[in-house]
């Protein structure tokens, strides 16, 4: 496998007459230098003569996007941008021996469904790779929901909103006739692959799933269970049922231990005392840097600055959280700590991001604005590496 990068400038078109090898379009992002007043930059692809909007990037809100779109060997592809900003595109070229060649012919198809309309796809084997609000010169505000109806079931593929989230990688396989439905004012572009059930498509579509599965396997290891006990306090495993609610009153009685009972009690008392002091100190630091009373704080907005390009974060993942807290008095403090994602809801600052971090990727950046009657605070979180062996 080999990685390649490409920068597309405005009013320029990248053309590959025939892909030499099976390739995955991994991600797209704005270059570091962007026009000050720019709002939206669109990536437009023409695959085997069919044009579709791949994604719309939003300055200061969503400047990068993970794609994982497979492009088969021999396919002709054109890539261009709409807007005033340059775009960086990352490709992963597969080695021929890494791809299953005994597969059916792959046919790319693009469909544009107008707002508040539907379209029926008769192909019995099709994979929806990507959905995006179609590029238009006139932008209509509002939200559009995209549904797929198949086998009597209705599935919400994406909820797209102008200026916030205008594209989504869905990667859904339909094995029967399906109906694509748009509820909202926007025309939606669909990128669909027909007639292929394996090879590169599975390599691309399963990559995110493999990362999640690997992480799930790590989450269930005894070491991780031990880590959770360390974060929650020194609590015997036999005293727990589901989430930890209280400490067992008989936690010091372990007759099987060979360690003297009195010595063990002393160590346990010291550990509790140290843990209590650390918690008090942490609370004081967080209280000092947070001038808004928690009961009066209102989260006015949470923005995604960057999607990140690393592994997917699970609810039991330990991550390095680097965050800054800025108050209205031009006071700015920075923090860095390792946290358990599912316990972020109890954190003084990181609780605002507890719903968006799970499912995000390493390197993602989020910003929360918290307002109260007499104060305004801004918290910016940088999701660092997933930590193991805590």
UniProtKB/TrEMBL annotation:
All residue ranges annotated as the Nucleoplasmin-like domain in the record: 4-87
Region (Disordered): 205-287
Cited InterPro entries: NPL (IPR041232)
Transmembrane regions: none
Amino acid composition bias (Basic and acidic residues), ranges on this chain: 261-277
Annotated Acidic residues bias: 205-218, 251-260
Protein name, as recorded: Nucleoplasmin-like domain-containing protein
Organism: Nematocida ausubeli (strain ATCC PRA-371 / ERTm2)
């Amino acid at each position: 496998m080999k990685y390649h990068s490409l920068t597309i400038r405005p009013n320029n078109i990248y053309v590959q007459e025939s892909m030499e090898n099976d390739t995955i379009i991994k991600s797209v992002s704005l270059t570091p230098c962007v026009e000050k007043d720019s709002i939206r930059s669109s990536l437009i692809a023409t695959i085997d003569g069919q044009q579709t909007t791949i994604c719309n990037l939003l300055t200061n809100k969503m400047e990068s996007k993970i794609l994982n779109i497979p492009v088969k060997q021999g396919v002709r592809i054109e890539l261009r941008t709409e807007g005033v900003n340059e775009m960086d595109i990352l490709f992963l070229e597969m080695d021929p021996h890494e791809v299953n060649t005994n597969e059916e012919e792959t046919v790319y198809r693009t469909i544009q469904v107008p707002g508040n309309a539907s379209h029926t796809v008769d192909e019995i084997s099709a994979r929806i790779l990507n959905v995006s609000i179609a590029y238009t010169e006139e932008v209509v505000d509002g939200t559009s929901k995209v549904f797929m109806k198949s086998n009597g079931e209705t599935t919400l593929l994406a909820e797209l909103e102008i200026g916030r989230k205008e594209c989504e990688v869905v990667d859904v396989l339909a094995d029967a006739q399906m109906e694509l439905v748009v509820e909202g004012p926007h025309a939606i572009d669909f990128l669909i692959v027909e007639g292929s059930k394996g090879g590169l498509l599975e390599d691309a579509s399963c990559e995110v799933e493999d990362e999640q599965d690997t992480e799930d396997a790590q989450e269930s290891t005894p070491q991780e269970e031990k880590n959770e006990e360390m974060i929650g306090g020194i609590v015997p495993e036999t005293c727990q049922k589901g989430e930890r609610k209280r400490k067992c009153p008989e936690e010091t009685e372990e007759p099987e231990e060979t360690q003297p009972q009195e010595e063990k009690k002393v160590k346990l008392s010291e550990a509790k005392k140290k843990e209590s002091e650390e918690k008090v100190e942490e609370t004081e630091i967080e209280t000092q840097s947070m001038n808004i009373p928690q009961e009066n704080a209102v989260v006015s907005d949470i923005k995604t600055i960057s999607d990140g390009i690393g592994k997917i974060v699970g609810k039991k993942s330990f991550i390095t959280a680097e965050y800054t807290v800025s108050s209205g008095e031009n006071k700015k403090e920075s923090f860095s700590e390792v946290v358990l994602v599912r316990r972020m809801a109890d954190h003084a600052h990181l609780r605002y991001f507890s719903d968006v971090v799970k499912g995000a990727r390493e390197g993602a950046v989020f910003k929360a604005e918290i307002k109260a009657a007499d104060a305004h605070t801004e918290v910016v979180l940088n999701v660092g590496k997933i930590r193991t062996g805590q």
